[in-house]
Amino acid sequence: MYKITNFSAYHCSLCVFFCNFASMEDNLKQRTAKGFAWGLANQGSMQVLNLVFGIVLARNLDPADYGVVGVLSVFTLIAGNLQACGLTQGLCNMECPEQKDYNSVFWFNISMSAALYIVLFLSAPLIARFFNEPALLNVSRLVFLTIPLSAVSIIAGAYMFKNLMVKETTIIGIIALIVSGIVGVTLALLKCSYWSLAWQQVTYTTVITIGRYVVCPIRPSWHFTFEPVRRMLPFSVKMMLTTVLNSLSGQLLTVVFAHIFKMRVVGHYSQANKWNTMASGMLQGTVSQIAQPVLAEIRNDQDRSLRVLRKMVRLTAFLSFPAMFGLSLVAEEFILTTIGAEWLPCVDMLRVLAVAGSTLPLYALLQNTAISHGRSDIYLWLNVVQIACQLLIVILLRHHAIICMIAATSVFTVLFLLVWHAFTRRLTTDYRLRFLLADTLPFALTAAAVMLLTWWLTSLFSVHYTLLLVIRIALAGILYMAMVWIFLRELAGVNELKLTRFRS
User: Fold this and answer.
1) What is the pLDDT of residues 81-95, one digit of tens each?
2) CA distances to 49, 153, 319, 322, 410 from 1, in Å
3) Helix 347-357 crosses helix 331-338 at what angle (to 10 degrees)?
4) Residue 152 dihedral angles phi and psi, to the nearest 5°
5) Which one, out of 68, 78, 333, 493, has a CA that is 20 to 30 A from the CA of 433?
6) Where does 2-153 have alpha helices with state H?
7) DSSP secondary structure code for residue 345 in this structure
8) pLDDT of 246 above 50
9) Smallest Cα–Cα separation from 420: which of 361, 479, 464?
10) Separation between Cα atoms, residue 498 and residue 501, nearest integer Å
11) Of all helices (H) and strands (E), which one includes residue 236?
12) CA triplet 482, 483, 487: central angle to 5 degrees?
């Protein structure tokens, strides 16, 4: 909600981004700027649609319904990563992938997805027994259909990712969200409980698969060899293991909570995590869509890579910190206005998660820097260490309240960004710690000061929570842009923005 309202800030920053790539060749600059613009449109429209459908669903479903479908996410995410096997990134890192390369990946994905679905189908009784939830037996077998369905379009997605077809990706994503949202809401209004969420997921994957094949020129054939896959495996296997670990890390608390607490508590956490992911995912998804292809194209020019990375970091910090700190500021009013008072237990969870979520787009930049240089080993082992530490924190705090576990893992997430910086620094001509701090801390401190000032000023008001939500968003947005204009306009690229408008 906060990020959507500050559309003008995104529009301004997008123009800054265009001029910041003036040192790049015209073709790459134009494709990057176009990709970033459509990436923002893609992520923005997705969050708006998710917001609208999410509000309707949350008002017609019980928190336990979210808990039932939420615990299955870890299985679908891990299985999806196993079937892809990191080959999308492998194709992207190839200079000129050919039809045989895409064909090889297609049949490998189909084989893997079929095997995984059979295993998960047969494991459904064990999953239901582990979580002590009989409903998981049948609903899991439906949700797991998304695995073979998504495998059909993996090479189309890889081709679109490699060629920065962000516009087409945006259109397909919007259509898929609208169709699946309508299906989910209709079933929820018909009192289908958790089945509405399950069918929403299956519908979304189906529409995405159909859309990709409509716009993508790549088509599989029956003549194939797995030799191209074997060539990509040394790089791709590390990517696969890392994405599996990332999926496990992202769902770690959900699984632990489902084993310790009641499904209602899991549902509250799932709701808080959903809104946090939606908010941080807008910029994180945009960064991920363009960072690897762009950085891979200029990876042999170290000085240029450093300049481009620093500009990306500054842009990301300029947008991410006010958006996520702002979500933390208005968490209570946002939940009350959108999904109702019965979800108030998730407010404190959302506040803590949003602060940690402000660093996730920066993670995406550093991770894509390593990937673009072919260092999937760094990407793998840093994630192994990060997840192991998070698991240790969860184990040590297993007897404490749920909010303590969330807060401790969130603090660790923020601090571990420094470890990622230390390992990716050598890939970008000495991107020193002082550079990272200079590119991020001014925006973080400014955003934090603005949110605290806004909270103090508006705490004196005695108005309806919806009006308070609007007042806080408007006041925080005005104060932040004013502070940036007065103190940080050179760092944010405001002067370059004026020059670009004059030239245009």
Assistant:
1) 666 666 666 666 666
2) 11, 32, 14, 12, 22
3) 120
4) -65, -30
5) 493
6) 2-5, 7-20, 26-60, 63-70, 73-84, 87-93, 99-130, 136-143, 146-151
7) G
8) yes
9) 361
10) 5
11) helix 227-260
12) 120
Pure H helices in 298-375 = 302-329, 331-338, 347-357, 360-372
Q: Number of helices (H) and strands (E) in the chain: give both, helices first.
A: 24, 0
Token look-up 């017609």 returns 60
Instruction: Please tell me the distance from the alpha carbon of residue 471 to that of residue 486, in angstroms, as a whole number.
Output: 22
pLDDT digits (tens, 9 = 90+) for 158-184: 777 777 677 788 788 888 888 988 998
- Mind listing the pLDDT tens digit for each residue in 390-415? 888 878 887 777 788 889 989 999 99
Nearest partner of 383 among 371, 396, 398, judged by Cα:
371
Instruction: Name the token pair of 157.
Output: 């997605």
Q: Are 232 and 91 in contact (CB under 8 A)?
A: yes
* Cα 48–chain centre separation: 15
Q: CA-CA distance, 27 to 5, in Å (whole number)?
A: 32
> Could you give the CA distance from residue 354 to residue 338 in angstroms, rounded to a whole number?
17
428 DSSP assignment: G
End-to-end CA distance of the chain: 32
CB-neighbour burial class of residue 448 (10 A; exposed 0-12, middle 13-18, buried 19+): middle
- The whole-number average pLDDT for the span 63-69 is 75
Residue entry with tokens 């998804």: 285
Q: Give 412-439 pLDDT, tens digit per residue.
A: 999 999 988 888 777 665 778 888 898 8
Q: Distance between CA atoms of 480 and 487, rounded to whole angstroms?
A: 11
Work out the percent of the chain whose per-residue pLDDT is above 70: 71
Q: Distance between CA 126 and CA 123 in Å, rounded?
A: 5
What is the average pLDDT across 360-388? 78
Rounded to an integer, what distance in angstroms lies between the CA atom of residue 212 and that of residue 134? 36
| Angle made by CA atoms 245, 146, 156, in degrees to the nearest 5 | 85
Phi-psi region of 191 (alpha: psi -120 to 50; beta: other; left: phi over 0): left
**129 Cβ contact list (under 8 Å, min separation 6):** none
- In tens, the pLDDT along 7-21 reads 344 344 444 443 443
Q: Strands, DSSP E only, in 339-465?
A: none
Mean pLDDT across the stretch 341-352?
Answer: 88
With contact defined as beta carbons under 8 Å apart, do 116 and 84 qualify?
A: no
Two tokens, residue 117: 């679905």
pLDDT digits (tens, 9 = 90+) for 109-153: 788 888 888 998 998 899 888 888 888 888 889 989 888 888 888
What is the reported pLDDT for 26?
Answer: 47
Could you give the maximum distance between any two Cα atoms of the chain, in Å?
71
Q: Which two tokens stand for residue 87?
A: 């080959």
Contacts of 415 (CB under 8 A, 6+ apart): none
For all residues of the chain together, what is the average pLDDT? 77
Separation CA 109–CA 240 (nearest Å): 12
